[in-house]
Amino acid sequence: MPSYEAPVEDVLFLLNDVLKVEKYGNLPGFSDASPDVLSAILEEGGKLAAETLAPLNVIGDRQGCKRHDDGSVTTPEGFKDAYLTYKEGGWIGLSLPPQYGGQGLPGVVNTIMQEFISSANLAWGMYPGLSQGAFAALYTHANDEIKQAYLPKMAEGAWSGTMNLTEPHCGTDLGLLRTKAVPQKDGSYKITGQKIFISAGEHDLTDNIVHLVLARIEGAPEGTKGISLFVVPKFLPDAAGEAGERNALSCGKIEEKMGIHGNATCVMNYDGATGWLVGEENRGLNAMFVMMNEARLAVGVQGLGMSVVAYQNAVTYARERLQGRALTGPKNPDGKADPIIVHPDVRRMLMQMRAFNEAARALILWVSLKADVLHRSDDEKAREEADDMLGLLTPVIKGVLTDVGFANTVNAQQIYGGHGYIGEWGMEQFVRDARIAMIYEGANGIQALDLVGRKLGRDGGRAIMAFFQEVGAFVAANKDNEAMAPYTRPLKQGADDLQAATMWFMQNAMKKPDNAGAGSTDYMHLFGLVVLGYMWALMAQAAQQGLAAGGNKAFLEAKLTTGRFFMERLMPETAAHLARIQTGADSMMALPADAF
Amino acid sequence: MPSYEAPVEDVLFLLNDVLKVEKYGNLPGFSDASPDVLSAILEEGGKLAAETLAPLNVIGDRQGCKRHDDGSVTTPEGFKDAYLTYKEGGWIGLSLPPQYGGQGLPGVVNTIMQEFISSANLAWGMYPGLSQGAFAALYTHANDEIKQAYLPKMAEGAWSGTMNLTEPHCGTDLGLLRTKAVPQKDGSYKITGQKIFISAGEHDLTDNIVHLVLARIEGAPEGTKGISLFVVPKFLPDAAGEAGERNALSCGKIEEKMGIHGNATCVMNYDGATGWLVGEENRGLNAMFVMMNEARLAVGVQGLGMSVVAYQNAVTYARERLQGRALTGPKNPDGKADPIIVHPDVRRMLMQMRAFNEAARALILWVSLKADVLHRSDDEKAREEADDMLGLLTPVIKGVLTDVGFANTVNAQQIYGGHGYIGEWGMEQFVRDARIAMIYEGANGIQALDLVGRKLGRDGGRAIMAFFQEVGAFVAANKDNEAMAPYTRPLKQGADDLQAATMWFMQNAMKKPDNAGAGSTDYMHLFGLVVLGYMWALMAQAAQQGLAAGGNKAFLEAKLTTGRFFMERLMPETAAHLARIQTGADSMMALPADAF
Asked: B5 an active-site residue?
């Protein structure tokens, strides 16, 4: 059975030495998060993930969720107890606003917990995870009455949340949606329609489930401009604010999926269910985007989390499995064979995962701190800059971290040889579970289109220019530093490729939009390499400074080596991405559809 | 439920127009395979795959195999009937020697059937597939008595075969194996030990199962030099040559796997089972390699087969699913949305699969014809050349076609969005099934090592030099042909990268073997791109000639476009592989094992 250990030391290195979290001390909540407090929270959270959640991961996969004839759903053995432990520990409200019962700690702390939980038990983690997105949407867009009714219950974890977008005939293209909302005299609406792929749509973990549902108010315009957002609870709040009368909605079916069996993916039927408008009429997508952006970052974190736990188990196996001899002579001469970690091709896979994991973790913390600035700073300029970078990087994080995260679970499985294909070793579950992250919250091709079609050009390209400027300034500041050259030179090369690709779009996509679409996925991954490379440059700098200051030698030197591996082995891919982008759409689009 | 259609037209184009199968008319069996006969066989075989085998694929996945308390195993519903149909059609002996009851048709015909069957039902196909490998090992190495006893039954399909290599503590490193063989007075041996991961180890499809088992004769040397090969039937042949007395072997367990549920992956226990030596004492690996090389090529074909069926279904979905509008304006203005095949990023995935599939099919047919030359020609020089190329390309075909084949099933699943993750659509099964091909018959890292460590340098590099010469001659012959330039220029660039990588190994791997190991997987994929690129150049030439001769315009122009896509979008990767290879092993091997 696979095991998991939370990477607390690495997180503390990132927060304290690389990202210098003390710089953010003036933001609300950060003063409560001293290094000691942070360290204690992470230790505690890591323990919870490793000891309470990870052991339920295989059980969740085997048992799955069970829908009963009355439409109720039972989660796998142990899921509910774990949820109660988590709830009672106050983890759900960790970074939520104190005014609704949250602890108000920095959002970055919650992001770290998301990584730990995703590694330990992805399917379980989706239950509280979706609540956080629903909380954010209500917090930002709902009126005060709704906030008072729902947010404290959600921050406490007594009630959970979901998001209901997809219908059988519409996923990406929400303009096609048909679920309808009929206004009632008391200001509420009757919601009718069918939603599919609703994660955590029905379960037994909480007293109530707060569905956020996109629907079309009778008479609203067609397309995306006629969609509104509603809060539709499973039980209507009673006079005391508790879960009261059952609402007219139910789970019609649980999907049989490739993985994340521990999470109930529901068909939800709304049969004139009572709901209330969130935000303005016909501006539902706008409100839902708050939730989707949170969710997209969280899904990127899931990609990382899966890669981390797969890596850890691959390392264990590679150290223990004896097979063959090192090309350079026996390393375990007293044994009948060497551990397979001596073989370069096994190392290649391990180092690839490691070099990605550590940079991806840096990236999500870096971006998460920007989210904290956006949500908590009173400096308007700082908020704008943070918002720009967050908007630009959200699709990159979602798309790249889940694509590479999945590929890494496949590599980790490969290290196990035949045993990787057998259920009992647990590695194939990681592959099946990680696969969903490339699909939900906007398939990765949609992320790439969002990046290229929307985020790049926004505000005259302000965000991407700021990014180039930041990376350029770092490279310039280190140009005489020979020790940094193995990091800054490939970084500059990658950034140049990214800049060339950006220019190419500017020159070629206006007159022919397919040129942008044809290069979008390559561009997203090119961007990913450059921003992860930038993280490695930051980490290398911090490691060198740490070594000079007498820090943990083994830890810091491993950082420098791993960063060098990233630059040598992963960065060369930027040139191939650029070459592909520059070939444009012609050969891609030339075949008539019936020639396929 | 997914569907399948055998690509008969494409195969005929390859055989007749690209590879010019009529050139081989002097080889035994080829004169029976006139274009009309070939076409009729392929139509018939394609129909069998599509109509008999494909419908059982989902059933096989859902039901899996069932082991009963007495150790017997039941295959999924319909598997046995399909096997009987297949057997009665004479398909098992299609290319086997007439002297043992086979039809003696060219091996390439059988290879094509392997592709069709892998697409239609991978798990089912492994039952007859393994028999063919076992047949080859016995045919090449067994004495006449054994051949007479087993080969006619196997060619007929009345008995099936297996290969038994792996033990719990030894997979790749067969030198560690412990199964023992004790000589008996009558010339037979008693075999005792446990084998794992035995595909088709026990089932209900045939009257007998012929296990080929690697074991160590009492007193034999340690390591790989003390391993012998034995034939150990489930039922001992009786006086009439039929399945007689039960042998002392049994299936102890069926593994629960990620996929290929329809094939029984067995733990096989040998408890003093009666077996007979195949080939020489202590030369068992040598004999088993005949089987493994056949099997490795067949597994490469499986990778292609999975990619093909995944592609076909992704195309169907991409044509039918309406979502969003083309970037260039509505293509289905009367509908509420356009089919998603209009979106460049969807095309990108489809074209990637298509460009790979068509070249990979050309490659396996090209190599399969070389195998026919090797096994059937009386021209010693031609046999040597064929053997060289077959040896060199076997690891490339196994490693690259299964890595890319798997990646393509993931892409095909991605085109389905959320529906791709749900069981009922069948796409996730392709991903789970295709995953095994990267692992069994030597994990792909082992293929890469075989290529770099063994095949490259053999006979002074004769094979790789012949390959470079052939590609170089093709490029030179077409250097003034402008119409071929979009194919020959990138091909030359790729071949130059491959040559540079080869040189780099020669200069850097002698003094430091880890440099070869560190670049082996990149080298294998670099080689794969170049040889697939060469196939595209051959196909482009044939397509241009065909167009000039008034051939099928739509078909031939699609070839030219798809080939151009391959050159523009896939070939640029050769430079990244070369860059990685040239960085060597340093950063990969620098971390101490306990730093992971």
From this structure: no
Residue A342: is its pLDDT beyond 90?
yes
| Backbone CA torsion sign across A317, A319, A320, A324 | positive
Q: Is pLDDT of A32 > 90?
A: no
> What does the block give as tokens for A549?
């200051």
Q: Taking 90 as the threshold, does the pLDDT of residue A525 lie above it?
A: yes
Beta-carbon contacts of residue A381 (< 8 Å; ≥ 6 apart): none
How far is Cα B332 from Cα A354, in angstroms, rounded to an integer?
46
SS3 label, residue B74: strand
Q: Which residues of B touch A445 (CB under 8 A)?
A: 343, 345-346, 349, 414
Q: In chain B, what are the domain boundaries? A: 8-141, 159-282, 462-588
pLDDT tens readout for residues B152-178? 999 999 999 999 999 999 888 999 999
HEC readout, A494-562: HHHHHHHHHHHHHHHCCCCCHHHHHHHHHHHHHHHHHHHHHHHHHHHHHHHHHHHCCCCHHHHHHHHHH
Indicate if the pLDDT at residue A171 is higher than 90.
no
pLDDT confidence band for A287 (50 / 70 / 90): confident
CA angle centred on B111, ends B284 and B231, rounded to 5°:
25
- The helix (run of H) or strand (run of E) holding residue A165 is none
Cross-chain Cβ contact A517/B343 below 8 Å: yes
Q: Which amino acid is at B368?
A: S
Q: List C-alpha distances in Å: B130 to A330, A555, A590, B161.
A: 35, 49, 42, 6
Using an 8 Å CB-CB cutoff, list chain A residues near B445.
343, 345-346, 349, 414
Contact between A192 and A272 (Cβ < 8 Å): yes
For residues B466 and B534, the answer to whether their CB atoms sit within 8 Å is no
pTM: 0.97
Kindly name the residue from A441, A482, A557, A568 that is annotated as catalytic.
A441
Give mean pLDDT, residues A311-338.
95
Please judge whether A439 and B445 are an interchain contact, meaning their C-beta atoms are less than 8 angstroms apart: no
Q: What is the CATH number of domain A8-141?
A: 1.10.540.10
Chain A residue whose CA is closest to B569? A580
* Top-tier CATH class for A159-282: mainly beta
B223 touches chain A (CB under 8 A): no
| Residues in CB range of A401: below 8 A, 6 or more apart | A300, A301, A303, A304, A360, A363, A364, A528
The residues with which A291 forms a beta bridge, in sequence order, are none
Q: Which of residues 258-297 of B touch A (CB under 8 A)?
A: 258-259
Rounded mean pLDDT, B281-295 = 89
Q: What's the ipTM?
A: 0.97
Q: Rounded to 5 degrees, what are φ and ψ at B180?
A: -115, 155
Question: Which among B171, B337, B596 is the nearest to A417, CB-wise?
Answer: B171
Q: How confident is the model at residue B385 (pLDDT cuts 50, 70, 90)?
A: very high
The Cα of B99 is separated from the nearest Cα of chain A by a number of Å equal to 37
Asked if residue A94 lies in contact with residue A103, where contact means CB atoms within 8 angstroms, the answer is yes
> H or E element: which one contains B162?
strand B159-164
pLDDT average, residue stretch A404-432: 98
CA distance A35 to chain B (A): 25
Neighbour tally for A32: CB within 10 Å: 12
pLDDT value for B510: 83
What is the pLDDT, as a whole number, of residue A85? 98
> Does position A543 have pLDDT exceeding 90, yes or no?
yes
Contacts of B176 in chain A (CB under 8 A): 322-323, 336-337
| Cα dihedral A285/A288/A293/A294 (nearest 10) | 180
Q: What's the burial of A319, exposed, middle or buried (CB within 10 Å: 0-12/13-18/19+)?
A: middle
Distance CA A229, CA A164 (A): 9
- Cα–Cα distance for residue pair B206/A308, rounded to 1 Å: 45
